[in-house]
Amino acid sequence: MGDASDLFQRAVIALSDEDYDRAEKLTKELLELEPKNTDGWSLLANIYQHKKHLDKAIQAATKATEFDPENLQGWNNLGYLYLLQGNWNKGERCYAKAATLPDPTPTIFLNHAWALIELGKEKEAEAQLREALNRSLEDTLYDDIETNQHYAKLRPLIKRIQK
What we know:
Blueprint: H1 4-16, H2 20-33, H3 38-50, H4 54-67, H5 72-85, H6 88-99, H7 106-118, H8 122-135, H9 140-147, H10 155-162
Helix pairs in contact: 1-2, 1-3, 2-3, 3-4, 3-5, 4-5, 5-6, 5-7, 6-7, 7-8
């Protein structure tokens, strides 16, 4: 079976090799040893996302946030999965929670803006987008917005912000 750290490392390697079944098997072994391992639950969510099993990915990501409600990455992952599913309300709530935690990243605010614009809340989306841009140290965030299809509805807000 192996120890938890070894299982985690091997699962990450399997995931990077796109051997999703092996990555899933190793991660489940890890979670048998350490059922509250939030990194393990987050990894399992990532594996399920790659396997296009969004419902299972959401269940795993939810476990990570249940075991550590202050886990910024857990809330980011869960919110993103909801957004991929088109569940804008749940995604927005996840990002609203993540934004209250210590040291939220620009991506937290960017994805919060994405959820809000999809919900028709343009002013709130613009405020979150401004926050993302203010916290970003590089211009790569602009590139992401211009090239990532998910952020297409945010592009008009960028033009308004840049005026």
